[in-house]
Write a structure and sequence with these properties.
The protein is of the alpha+beta class. It has eleven helices and nine strands.
C-alpha cells in the first residue's frame, strides 16, 4: 500500500513525458519536395522562415506554419497592339511558365506576398506584371530584331519579366512566343523579301552548276578525241612494214576518218556555240529575273513601309486632333462657364443695384411723402391759427420770411465795389428855398432803382411796404421834380480872353 502513491506519481510523470513527446512530434513539421514550409510568428529571422525541403520544429502558441505550392503555373499572354521602337504596333501571343522560387531571398518575398493566395490570384497578378514588361521590351526593339533575333528578344524578356516576378517571389521558367504579327503587314513583307532572295540565290547556283557540268562534259569529249588520235597514230607507225597498199588503204581510211572527225569536230563546235549561247541567254534571263524580283521585293518593302508610315501618321494625327479637340472643348466649356458666371454676377449685381435703387427711391418717396404730410399738417395748423383765413396764413408765412427777404435785398448791392465817385455839380439851385436836387441825388435814386423791386413782392403777397423804407410814389415824385428843376442847357458866359466859359457836365 505504501508503494501505490509512488507508482501513481511515476505513472503521471510518464504520462506527462509521453504527452510532451506527442506534442513535440506533432509540432515537428517536414517539408515535401514540391512545397515550401513557411514558419511565421516569432521567428527571429524577419517576417517568416522559409524551408525548401528538410524539417523544422514549430513552437506552439508563438509560431504557426503554412505551405507554398511549387507547382508550375502556365499563363497565356495574348499581347495586342504593342508599339515597337519604329512606332509600329505588333501582336505578340506567348505563353509564360512561372513558379514560386526556392531562392532564399525570393522565398521570403513569396511568403510575404503570395501566402494563402490561390493559383488564379497568382496568375492574375503575374499576368499584369508580364503584360507591362513585355510591352516595355517590345518598345525597345525593332521589328526586324523581334522577328529574326529571337534569342535577344527572349533574353530581354527573361531579364525584364524575371526581375519583376522575383519581387513577388516568382521565378520565370519558360517563355514560348508562338507567332509575331503586325497590323501593317511589315513582317509579312520581310518574309516575302527573304523568300524571294533565297529563290534567286538558288536559281543562280543552279545556273552555275549547269555551266560547270557543260564545261566538264566538253573537256572530257575533247580528251577522248585526242587519245583516239594518238592510238591511231601508234597503230599506223607499228604497221610500217606492211604492204603499201595496206598503208594506202589505211591512209585513205585515216583520211576519211580524219575528215569525218573534222566534220564531227565542226558539228561539236557548232553545238558547243549554240549551247554556250543558250547558257548565256539563260544566265542573262536568270540575272534579269533576279534583279526584277529584287526590285519587286524592294517595292513591296517600300510599300509596306509607306503604309506603316501612313498608318503611324494617321494615328499621330488622330492623337493630336483628339488632344486639340479635347483642349478646345475644355476651353470652350470653361469660357461658357466663365461667361455664364460673369453674366450671373452682372445680373445679380444689377438686380442688387436695382433693388437698392428701388429701396432708396421708395425711402425718398416715403420721406418726401412724410415731409409733405408734415408740411400740410403745419400749413393746416397755420391756417387754423389764422382763423381759417388762407390769406392771413400766407401773410403770416411771408412775415416770417421777411428777414430773409430783406437780407436778400441787402445782399444784392452788398458786394458792389465803388472805388471812387466824382460829381460835377452845375452850381445852380432850384426850388423855393434856393436848394436844388443835384446829380448826387440822381445817382442815389438810380442806385435805389437798381435794387430788386421789393414792393412788387409785397404787392403779390397783398402787403404794404414798411413806412421806414419809403414809398415808390415819393421816390418817383422826387425824381420827376429833380428832372424839372435841372437846367435844360448850360449857358456860356462871355470871357475876357474871347473864349466861352461853360460849366462841365457832371461825371459819374
Amino acid at each position: 500500500m505504501e508503494g501505490l502513491p509512488f507508482f501513481a506519481g511515476g505513472a503521471a510523470l510518464l504520462g506527462f513525458i509521453f504527452l510532451l513527446l506527442i506534442i513535440f512530434l506533432s509540432r515537428y513539421k517536414r517539408c515535401p519536395s514540391d512545397k515550401i514550409l513557411v514558419i511565421y510568428g516569432k521567428t527571429n529571422s524577419g517576417s517568416a522562415k522559409c524551408l525548401a525541403g528538410g524539417a523544422a520544429f514549430v513552437w506552439p502558441v508563438v509560431q504557426d506554419y503554412a505551405y507554398l505550392d511549387l507547382h508550375p503555373i502556365s499563363i497565356d499572354v495574348d499581347l495586342h497592339g504593342a508599339l515597337s521602337r519604329q512606332n509600329i504596333r505588333v501582336n505578340v501571343p506567348s505563353r509564360f511558365t512561372v513558379a514560386i522560387s526556392t531562392e532564399a531571398g525570393v522565398m521570403t518575398n513569396a511568403a510575404e506576398r503570395l501566402l494563402n493566395r490561390n493559383e488564379d490570384e497568382i496568375r492574375d497578378m503575374s499576368k499584369d506584371i508580364i503584360f507591362g514588361q513585355l510591352r516595355l521590351v517590345v518598345a525597345t526593339m525593332d521589328i526586324e530584331e523581334i522577328n529574326s533575333d529571337r534569342d535577344k528578344f527572349l533574353a530581354n524578356v527573361y531579364h525584364n519579366v524575371g526581375t519583376e516576378l522575383r519581387k513577388i517571389g516568382l521565378e520565370l521558367i519558360n517563355v514560348n512566343v508562338t507567332d509575331i504579327q503586325d497590323e501593317s503587314g511589315y513582317i509579312e513583307a520581310l518574309g516575302k523579301e527573304a523568300a524571294a532572295q533565297a529563290i534567286n540565290e538558288a536559281k543562280v547556283r543552279v545556273a552555275q552548276r549547269n555551266q560547270t557540268g557543260s564545261i566538264g562534259e566538253a573537256e572530257a569529249r575533247q580528251l577522248q578525241r585526242v587519245k583516239v588520235a594518238e592510238a591511231e597514230a601508234g597503230a599506223a607507225s607499228g604497221e610500217a612494214d606492211a604492204a603499201r597498199l595496206q598503208r594506202v588503204r589505211l591512209a585513205e581510211a585515216d583520211a576519211e576518218a580524219t575528215e569525218g572527225e573534222n566534220l564531227s569536230k565542226i558539228k561539236i563546235a557548232q553545238s558547243d556555240a549554240v549551247r554556250r549561247e543558250q547558257e548565256a541567254e539563260a544566265l542573262r534571263r536568270a540575272t534579269a529575273a533576279e534583279k526584277v524580283q529584287n526590285a519587286n521585293s524592294l517595292a513591296d518593302a517600300y510599300e509596306a513601309e509607306r503604309k506603316a508610315e501612313l498608318a503611324r501618321a494617321a494615328r499621330e494625327r488622330a492623337t493630336l486632333e483628339a488632344n486639340e479637340i479635347v483642349k478646345a472643348d475644355i476651353a470652350k466649356r470653361e469660357a461658357e462657364i466663365n461667361a455664364e458666371a460673369d453674366a450671373e454676377k452682372i445680373r445679380r449685381t444689377a438686380k442688387g443695384e436695382a433693388d437698392a435703387l428701388l429701396a432708396m427711391k421708395q425711402a425718398e418717396a416715403q420721406g418726401n411723402l412724410e415731409i409733405l404730410a408734415k408740411q400740410a399738417e403745419g400749413l393746416k395748423a397755420i391756417v387754423d391759427a389764422a382763423g381759417g383765413d388762407a390769406r392771413e396764413a400766407v401773410l403770416m408765412l411771408i412775415a416770417d420770411k421777411l428777414p430773409e427777404l430783406v437780407k436778400t435785398q441787402v445782399e444784392a448791392i452788398k458786394n458792389i465795389k465803388i472805388d471812387k465817385v466824382t460829381v460835377w455839380e452845375g452850381g445852380g439851385g432850384g426850388g423855393s428855398n434856393g436848394e436844388g436836387v443835384g446829380s448826387t441825388a440822381n445817382f442815389v435814386s438810380g442806385l435805389y432803382k437798381a435794387v430788386p423791386p421789393l414792393r412788387d413782392l409785397f404787392d403779390m403777397a397783398g402787403m404794404n411796404l414798411p413806412s421806414y423804407l419809403g414809398s415808390i410814389e415819393d421816390v418817383e415824385g422826387e425824381v420827376i421834380s429833380n428832372e424839372k428843376k435841372k437846367p435844360s442847357k448850360s449857358k456860356a458866359k462871355p470871357s475876357t480872353n474871347g473864349k466861352s466859359d461853360a460849366t462841365p457836365p457832371p461825371l459819374a
